[in-house]
Amino acid sequence: MALIPGHYTTSPIMGLVLPVPGLTDRLGVEPPGASWMELQNTAMLVLDAHNHTPGLGSLVPTSGLNINADLPFNGYRATNAKEVQFANQGSQPSDLSCIYFYNGNAYINDTAGNKIALTSGGGIAGSPGSISGMTGNASAVYSSPTFSFYSASQVYANLGIGPINLYDTAVGITQAVQLRSPASLSAGYSLTFPGALPASTLPLLLSSAGIFSTGQITGSQLSLSLPGSTQPLLISSGGVLSAAQITGSQISGSAGITGSQLSASAGITTAQLASTIGSGTTVALQGYVDTVSTGTISWGSNWTDQGSRLTKGPGGIVTLNVDAAAGAGNGSTVATLPSGYRPVIQVWGMAGDANGNLVTAAFISVHTDGTVVMNAASLTTGHALIFSISFSTS
């Protein structure tokens, strides 16, 4: 087919030869097959056969698709997909050989219609009765209400786990007791429980080999001993177990400890001794000392210390001896006592001057906030206020 240059154009995508209005002439004038009517008929036949493959029409973009029914692949694979996003289903479909998401988890329906969970609770859903990676006769078995883990037939397996939360089995329990390893260990160790329960309540002891046992606490376990020996097992208010010696502060006054069981370094007080020690028994009480502490007096404005003293002895009894030069008159604050050296109720006492004369109607008061106040009809400024008073702090 001979075409006259300038009497036709070619479409850019499908290469259709199209007539040019006003130039392409009618049939019989243009060469055979090149008239405007023939060119249009040829182009229409090509359009009729196009399928949007390369050279046969523009490729259809995603925005040009409106899939409103099942899209069959006619037995072919969907390839080169970056990812596949699923809509979460409100109910499980009954289709066979399909993958879907239901209630936030992935499922697959096999060819028999079984609905198999692939994920559960943010993880892979395991097959009932087994855990991935187990070989040989290893297994996990649930027999209500107990899970059992085996490394071989009838051989229980070791478990490597983090802290264990122990719950009661009643419905609705939310609080647990947690067992955990220390945050750091210089070396691992094992703990072995007693072979049987004791016939009566006894202390729980822990040996240097990590073996628990029950028995009475002996005198050697109340005193200092070398590391590695058998020690009582103590539990703190924070729930931390430790092996340590029992100190005097951890023994009740009614414990009935005898003299032969006391060490000089045990720190046992007389109140913690048995009422009957035994004839001829010598009790070592070197660990018990009645101490006397000294407090610091804060003096009031214009008052000068001339040899005063503040002490607290056994039982919390405070003694205040004052010898101070008066610098203020009636109702002034002589001094302030520190915390721990203050009475639980306000107390009163009489006072005298440096010459030993009793000041008429004069007295001092010690308040619960520690202030010591002078109340006197007359007291010469510069003379010494002298008094002594004792009171309890508990």
Task: Quickly list its features.
394 residues, mainly beta, five-stranded antiparallel β-sheet, 3% helix, elongated
Describe the structure.
With 394 residues, the protein is mainly beta. It has five domains: 60 residues, no CATH class; 37 residues, no CATH class; 55 residues, no CATH class; 42 residues, no CATH class; 100 residues, Immunoglobulin-like, CATH 2.60.40. The protein is built from one helix and 27 strands. The strands form eight sheets. Strands 18, 20, 21, 22 and 27 form a five-stranded antiparallel sheet that branches. Strand 21 and strand 22 form a beta hairpin. The radius of gyration is 50 Å and the shape is elongated. The protein starts with 7 loop residues before the first strand and ends with a strand. About 6% of the residues have low confidence.
